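RETRY 2/3 - previous attempt timed out on the joint model. Re-submitting the same 1167-residue input unchanged.
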Amino acid sequence: MRLTRKSAQPADSAVKGLGITRRQFLQRSGATTGGLAAAGFMGNTMMRRADAREKTQVSDAPIETKRTICSHCSVGCGSYAEVQEGVWTRQEPAFDHPVNRGAHCAKGASLREHGHSTRRLKYPMKLEGGEWKRLSWEQAIEEVGDKVLQLRDNYGPDSVYWLGSAKFSNEQAYLMRKFAAMFGTNNTDHQARICHSTTVAGVANTWGYGAMTNSLNDMHNSKSIIFIGSNPTEAHPIAMQHILIAKERGANIIVVDPRFTRTAAKADKYVRLRPGSDVAYTWGLLWHIFENGWEDKEYINNRVYGMDKVREEVAAFPPEVVESITGVSKEDMYDVAKRLADNRPGCVVWCMGGTQHTTGNNNTRAYCILELALGNIGVSGGGANIFRGHDNVQGATDLGLMSHSLPGYYGLTEGAWQHWGEIWGLDQEWLKSRFDQTEYTDGKPMYANGITVSRWIDGVLEQDENIAQRSSLKGMFYWGHAVNSQTRGPEMKKAMGKLELMVIVDPYPTVAAVMHGRSDGVYLLPATGQFETSGSVTNTSRSLQWRDKVIEPLFESRTDHEIMYLLAKKLGFAEQMFKNIQVNGNEPLIEDITREFNKGMWTVGYTGQSPERLKLHQQNWHTFSFETLQAESGPAKGDYYGLPWPCWGNPDMAHPGTPLLYDMSKSVKEGGLTFRARFGVERDGVNLLADGVFSKGSDLNDGYPEFTAEMLKQLGWWEELTDEEKTAAEGKNWKTDLSGGIQRVVIDHGCAPFGNAKARCEVWTFPDPIPKHREPLYTPRRDLVKEYPTWDDVQSLYRLPTLYRSIQEEDFSQRYPLTLTSGRLVEYEGGGEETRSISWLAELQQEMFVEINPEMAEELGIANDDTVWVEGAEKGRVKVKALVTPRVGRDVVFMPFHFGGIFEGENLHDHYPEGSAPYVLGESANTATTYGYDSVTQMQESKVTLCRIEKATA
Amino acid sequence: MTKMKFVCDAERCIECNGCVTACKNANETAWGIQRRRVVTIDDGKPTEVSISVACMHCDDAPCMAVCPTDCFHKTDDGIVLHDKDLCIGCGYCLYACPFGAPQFPKQAAFGERGKMDKCTYCAGGPADTKEEEYEKYGANRIAEGKLPLCAEMCATKALMAGPTDTLTDLFRERMEKRGQSLDAWQPMHNDQSSETAATLNLDRMAYDASRQV
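RETRY 2/3 succeeded.
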């Protein structure tokens, strides 16, 4: 970074800011060459304070100290909030917190401003004749509810989309899913779809659960760490504390990325690969591993199915082929493969760089297979350490806020509805009556995957006859969602214009409130952030953490669960929805919601984490080890921090949580585990169960399938159930026995409730059973399309036609020669509306930019700091500053995706309700991104497309 | 009497700007005033390295030497503070400071800058009441036995604050640990036996040693 001073006024002021931005970005001639000393003398003669807000008052009032968890990323950093007379006056580091030891990144160190932000939505509003008009809560709920009921009557329950959030607590996420179910639709989803859905699908289909296998703290034990499409220094900065500890202990750090990221700056080895070539890259590593016999043969024999088929595929990726596809030389491939082979146990870390592709599910499975070949899964220091994005994207996924499943990954089968119907204490017929009972292409809507968040645009724009439900979407709820984190901006705007109802429920107006081009039919309902309520949140290491309420809701905002209650009441299903949940005034009791999902989440072991146990952990942060996460003393002694799921059985079984998935060196009772038997016991005559290996202390000394009541009887363990448990467990299995008896008994026998199987490399239910390299839809490498084509178009996937070949067939690379990719900045998060409304953060990143390699910039006649137009292959255009840097390769350009509020050159500042525009606005990268969806999960393709760049003339 | 210092371990600094917003959080300085900032050298190149910089609370502080109104003073802990009532906003200290620590709230005609503002090591400054102290200088954590919030919140424990002796010990320990594997960070890889690699490692080690302190 240059020693330059940042702009002295917020960039959203009417006067155009100085354009000083992104640290090193500014290479202005002359004025700043004296560095910081000279900076104070630059231009800009008039200055004003960023905000009218005065400093927090100094007070001698008694201090209440609250324990909370950062609401930004999934690392889950603890923090102490000091509150005086209801005002958040201080933020103190939690040195005793087992994950972050007091540390924070820019976002975490500015949490306190969440308690003071003036840019929040302050009261309910509606857009009427192009003006924002204030409403009372009663009016707002009444009007919105009437409109929703009208849409339901006219077009059926699937016409309204309930887009939820990874920013919810676990309780709120669960409640939102339940809400959609009660409304009678599966058209509900959240950001996991556009974040790690391909991970969840790919990884769960490989070995059982689609989550980070080990913990951040366990990475201390890694001998090598390979990051593919992950940049923790900006996206998960506190993870770097652990990663650097591993490095200081001798771990080999390898970064594979199209950009030389800030993480790469800390690595032992950096490899630049072409965006979208992950499978070829991974097979290239495996080629060397197989060639040199570095694979862990015994491990593969005992615990892995289908590696032979991988070998066949990998054989087609010798070094010269890999170099052609990925751009990585044979020497570099060998070097990395050898580092991985020589430094075991090692782990792989991937994030959006791997997941956000049409081939995302192939990528994630390829990474898993690499680790399986090296024997790295299920051991301390190893693992597939998939860093999740938002603070509670793991929890919201687990709790089923998705269009293809009920909570706990039970799916949408009749059995799943029966299971949850029983927990909810509801009659199946009533539940059914809430849904459209017509049969469409995908089946009956109740049992068919709903439209995904990535595709709601098409859900609105597509012709009714092409959608596998009664009509296109007519009403959208954006409940804690940044629309600018989604691709295809111009089409999104079109979709918004076509809707009959837009409701934004959020602490901030969000880009959805300003980009629609409408003059009516938009409602804003102010929700609180997580510091204005309490509840649990699941971090990337699967640990559940309890948050205290720090302050009372600001302005007229209300908690999300209260708003859900108000709407449920208006829509007429509050009685059913809150049957087991106490409601105080209008606010459902959080702990009752936790207890309710505890009763049903057997599949992933969210059953042992009672509110009481979680609060005990929260009050005893200091007792948990920074190395192992296990409490060494105190009231939670023996437990792992946050009872990382699966935490089997009922809370009184006192399971300590599972710190490392599939670690057979511990007994299941102590947090050990096997690979899950999820895919049957045999395939084409080949055994799918583990071969002669089992977790410590297991009474069954070989592989075994998942447990059912019948199996217990066959094994002679049935009599160990109590009479009550027997009644409940009869005819059930480990997932559906609500007494927890089956889980208790099998764990007493040292067995894993879900069986003991092999991980599988071949997912025969996916479009590519063995992951294949396929060129991106918008590829600059036309020469590779023939050999590595995408899939055929699909008639209906998640209710919508999905295009592949028909897009790839056309050559866009002549007009759009540059590859466009996107990513994060440390100061902002997601769509950035919240973080750009925090002045301490906004001050640090004031302008949207595009990174261009110096060679390419020279070729295009673009200088650093020039204003340029970036036009995506579908003609979406953004006007941004050029940042000329060798960080990106010659043919790749990069844009951060946190900006919004300027659309194709038009500043939308005045469309925000007065006083609620973020401090910093900018073009959204996703205005220029294009079509493309994963073939299994409908993940959006935002990491590789094509674009062109021209210098802006005006 | 021991002296309080900052030290930033460049091998650990990840340029996350946590220290910058922690400072904002503790002191609530106005938009545009950054008492602390992170400097990155060779941005985007293989030699990229970052370091967090603020007032270094120099032993022989140039700002103190040049100030025409003698507004600076040094506490018993070695913390350099200034009196905003005495400051005339001339900017001499800004010219004198090798680190660019002094900040000025205004940039008006005729060089009007307003009262200088800089890192106080979270030790407040001269004022009659706590309210006035916070308004003018920000937090006084030192009075409560706490360290500056920037260092306390550092993401990777790169930025450290404390008495000189403690910092020296901590830093030496890190250096010794890293040095054990020949070069400060890299473990002994397979290619260590080759002569060129060994020379390279020694070079790196020397480079690290010179760059660290």
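Chain B touches chain A through 63 residues (CB under 8 Å). Closing ticket.
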